[in-house]
Each structure stands twice: as C-alpha cells, then as structure tokens.
UniProtKB/TrEMBL annotation:
Gene3D superfamilies: Peptidoglycan recognition protein-like (3.40.80.10). It catalyses: Hydrolyzes the link between N-acetylmuramoyl residues and L-amino acid residues in certain cell-wall glycopeptides. Keywords: Cell wall biogenesis/degradation, Hydrolase. Its EC number is 3.5.1.28. CDD domains: PGRP. This is N-acetylmuramoyl-L-alanine amidase. It holds the Pfam family Amidase_2. Residues 67-199 form the N-acetylmuramoyl-L-alanine amidase domain.
C-alpha cells in the first residue's frame, strides 16, 4: 500500500490548502461554529458531530454498513474501548460488504482488511458494531474482519498482516489499549462464542510483533 498511500497524502495536502484559503475568508463564522460543536460534545446524551464519509483509519475506504448491523453510540465517552477483536470473513471481500449492508444480517464489523492490504471501514469506532456475538464485548471493542477462510493459511497475506497491524496499532493508540493478547483477541476468545475465527493458521506471534512495530513507528 506504499505508493497509493503517498498519493492519498498528496491529494489531501492539496485539498487542505484550498480549504485553508476559504477558511481564512470566513474565519469568524468557522470559529463560532467550532465553539458550538465543542459545547455539544459536553452535553450528556448528545452525539458528537459527525462528518459524512469520515474514517477513523487514514486511507481507509468508507462503505457504510446498514444501520441494522450496529448501534449508534458515543464511544469512548459512553463505553470505554479496551479490546480489538480479530475475525475472518469466511468468504470474499465482496460478500462481506454485501452482508454488512444487509439490514437482515444483524452483524457487521467496523473494518474489513483485504488480502491486498486495502482497508474498508463500514462502521465508525464511535458506534457499537454487532460482531462479537456478546453485547458487553461489542460495546468495548473494535472489530476487524480479514478476507479469507480459517482453513486457508494462504489467505492471510503479508499485505493483510501489515495493514491490519497498522490498523490495530492505531486503535490501541487512540484508546490507550495495551498491545498484548489479553486486549487484542480472536473472535474465538470472546466469552460464550461458538465462532472459531481467526483459526489456527492466524499467526499471532507474527501479528503482535507487527502491531508493536507499527505502534512505535
Ligand atoms: Zn468472527
């Protein structure tokens, strides 16, 4: 993802310059709106302002999940986030996107990491995604799907491990989650689950090493 990442950086840089010029012209109005938004933040039960299409992981593609597959929340203010939960889709990327957009599915994760290392975000980290099959663990976690099947080790590509590790390191950094196997867990480790993902071929030692390296970068 090296080359495409730097392309994105350049595009954002150019747009930031344009927006900066416009903001200077209407400085007072922007400031007033900023203060208002700041006050909203402090009122209990009022959601943080959201920007349509915004992502929590830089470079992620935003594809909205159906509202039937998550609950709007205001994390980490209403629920502390202290877990990252690793999943495997048991299907293609396209099929995972499709079911997460289906309100009847009643499950979806925040992110899908593809075998080519591209990351799609479908639910904001603010919100409670239905991915763990356990209400308490849904409320306290960020869920990351990986494109592939638990019995096909070749599905877990170098690009996937690297991208997912950067993603998990970012989540841990945002919420002060320790990078260890108590806090970065598989779906199989969620209390009460009958799911087995990510399965025996997920290389936890390698993954945690990559997360620690990404965290220091
Ligand atoms: Zn799972």
């Amino acid at each position: 993802m090296g080359a495409s990442e730097s392309d994105k950086d350049r595009r954002i840089g150019r747009r930031a310059l344009l927006v900066g010029g416009a903001a200077a012209a209407v400085g007072t109005a922007v400031l007033a709106r900023g203060e208002l938004a700041h006050l909203w933040w402090r009122l209990p039960g009022v959601q943080k302002p959201r920007v349509e299409g915004a992502v929590d992981f830089k470079g992620a593609l935003w594809v909205a999940a159906s509202s039937g597959n998550f609950r709007t929340a205001d994390r980490p203010d209403d629920y502390a986030i202290d877990r990252v939960i690793i999943h495997v889709t048991q299907g293609s990327y396209a099929s995972a996107v499709k079911v997460f957009q289906d309100p009847a599915h009643q499950a979806a994760a925040h992110y899908i990491v593809r075998q080519d290392g591209d990351v799609t975000q479908m639910i904001r980290e603010l919100d409670v995604a239905f991915h763990a099959g356990n209400r308490e663990f849904n409320e306290r976690s960020v869920g990351i799907e990986h494109e592939g099947f638990v019995d096909r080790p070749q599905d877990f590509t170098d690009a996937m491990y690297a991208a997912s590790a950067r993603l998990t390191a970012g989540v841990c950094g945002r919420y002060g989650i320790p990078v260890d196997r108590e806090h970065v867990i598989g779906h199989v480790e969620v209390p009460g689950t009958d799911h087995t993902d990510p399965g025996p071929h997920w290389d936890w030692d390698r993954y945690m090493g990559l997360v620690r390296r990404a965290e220091r970068a």
